[in-house]
Write a structure and sequence with these properties.
Strand order of the largest sheet: 4-3-13-12-14-15-16-17-18
Radius of gyration: 23 Å
Strand content: 25-35%
Mean pLDDT: 86
Number of helices: 14
Number of strands: 30
Helix content: 25-40%
């Protein structure tokens, strides 16, 4: 018997044994749950712990500095009043720049002004302009000392510095905000195509962040270290908003520097550390990290891209810490996380357990729920996913729902769900169909990283006249050796013939997003 996705039980119905469906769990009304909007949660934290560190960092002289919640509250109110003088509530306000303290002040100010935060990735003026035009940006906020502060204007948006905006009275009028109102217009990573804009509500980001930090083992008031860019949900939602839901501390850094990151962790004492695999590799390869540096750390969470199991084993062995694997998307942040108490194979070889507060199912071809353990597309439903994509119709922008008539969002990721634990297999758009057979690059990559000669590998498909598609592997050798014979021999021994790449080539490094994801579309373009 198969069960159609559209016939899934209503929320709260019991799970169906034998099928890949999990109803939502968790009580959103529990005492430790965050408020429903960003300004409400900020006000709650300021009232409870005004003198607790909100932001902490190590300056160029090695001294630990901090901004307390009381001061952050004052600064954000001043900037909010300045924003309200320039644009109306509901306006789209961008943030650009690498000064994280200024970025955070601006984000909370934008929310308090009843506007939408639009993180703009750094880049050439042409790229910035294109992003601003994509969302019809009304105002762009930049730090005073940013290299972008000299942008007097863009064709599509007014530009203002945080300092000028914050010169006014700190007491502004309260702007009515609904939990379902948009808080964040998030550009997707665009690793396999043009970036879209996911619209995330106040309720969605607070709920997602809360489940992530609690699942990772954080407690009220804890510090979180997450050097991912704030223009990515891993940095803004899991990191910054995660700290806000705890009434804790966000540990800020400039650019990620593997030579000094361990010292920053030792000096700022976070309980949760979030890193992507490329950051961890750089840190371990330089030999700058010692177990003593991680004395305060409850868990290190790796995510944003596929995490090599051998790397996890190395981190745990070398640093004596617990490693958790996190999984999420711009469209649905913090979807799953392995748990501290999980058996080692589950904790390090899967993407963990679905986070509470959502319904999950795995759908096969034809829109049916697959049996427990079978591979299919992960679907998710609930209030902590995006409201939709921002789309243009002529001169008008609107939010277009990406869910079906029953509220299910198709993630585009192929997973299996067995006894409540998710295993990632591939992104749907990355599946290679070779001679009618589905091949999953993530599975092949995981096997190939077991070869000592492989530093990093990316497998993808390119068109083939006879087979439809053929496999290609780009390899960054472990020792800089361009001779691929050892890797090809390893593949012949450990992979079935259909799963062996037909072509190989060496790279010094990969084209990446700001969070370390490999841009496979850029690699595949070399073969067109």
């Amino acid at each position: 018997m198969t069960i159609a996705v559209e016939h899934l039980p209503e929320p709260g119905a019991p799970a169906w044994p034998g099928y890949s469906y999990l109803p939502r769990s968790g009580d959103p009304g529990s005492e430790d749950a965050p408020a429903q909007t960003i300004p409400e949660q900020l006000a709650r934290v300021v009232a409870r712990t005004p003198d607790h560190d909100a932001i902490r960092w190590v300056d160029s002289d090695g001294i630990v500095r901090a901004v307390r919640w009381r001061e952050l509250d004052d600064r954000s109110w001043r900037v909010a009043v300045g924003i309200a003088r320039l644009v109306p509530a509901g306006a789209r306000v961008g943030i650009l720049g690498e000064d994280r303290t200024a970025w955070i002040v601006a984000a909370f100010a934008i929310a308090r002004a009843g506007c939408v935060v639009v993180p703009i990735p750094a880049g050439p003026v042409s790229s910035i302009t294109a992003r601003c035009r994509q969302v019809d940006l009304d105002l762009l906020v930049v730090p005073d000392d940013s290299r972008y502060a000299t942008l007097d204007h863009l064709a599509c948006a007014r530009v203002a510095t945080a300092g000028v905006l914050g010169e006014g009275d700190p007491h502004g009028p309260q702007v009515p905000i609904d939990p379902g109102d948009p808080f964040l217009y998030q550009f997707t990573s665009g690793t396999t195509g043009t970036p879209k804009v996911a619209v995330l509500s106040h309720r969605a980001v607070l709920g997602s962040a809360h489940e992530y930090v609690r699942g990772a083992g954080a407690r009220d008031g804890d510090a979180l270290f997450n050097p991912l860019p704030l223009d990515h949900v891993g940095g803004s939602v899991a990191g910054l908003i995660g700290a806000l839901t705890l009434g804790g501390t966000y540990v800020a850094v400039g650019r990620f520097d593997p030579a000094t990151v361990a010292a920053v962790i030792a000096r700022t004492a976070p309980s949760i550390v979030g890193l992507v695999p490329t950051m961890i590799i750089d840190m371990l390869d330089r030999g700058n990290a010692r177990p003593a540096d991680f004395a305060s750390v409850v868990s290190v969470v790796g995510g944003a891209t596929r995490v090599d199991p051998a790397l996890i084993d190395r981190v745990e062995h070398d640093l004596g810490i617990r490693f958790l694997v996190g999984y999420g998307q711009s469209e649905a942040p913090c979807l799953a996380l392995s748990a501290l108490g999980d058996p080692q194979p589950e904790r390090t070889r899967t993407i963990g357990r679905p986070a509470p507060g959502r319904d999950y199912c795995v759908a096969g071809e034809g829109g049916t729920v697959v049996a427990d353990g079978e591979i299919g597309e992960l679907c998710v439903r609930g209030t902590t996913i995006m409201s939709g994509y921002l789309v243009r119709e002529g001169e008008t922008l609107r939010v277009e729902s990406a869910t079906d008539g029953h509220g299910w969002l198709r993630t585009g990721d192929l997973v299996s769900l067995r006894q409540g634990v998710l295993t990632f297999h591939s992104r749907l758009r990355e599946v290679v169909i070779r001679g009618g057979e589905n091949l999953y690059p993530a599975q092949i990559e995981q096997i190939l990283t077991g070869c000592a000669a492989v530093g990093e590998v990316s497998v993808f498909g390119v068109p083939d006249e006879r087979l439809g598609e053929r496999l290609v592997a780009a390899v960054r050798p472990a020792c800089g050796d361009s001779d691929l014979r050892a890797i090809e021999d390893f593949a012949a021994e450990h992979l079935p013939r259909a799963m062996r790449p037909a072509q190989w080539f060496v790279v010094d490094d990969f084209p990446r997003t700001g969070t370390g994801k490999i841009r496979k579309n850029d690699l595949a373009a070399r073969f067109h």
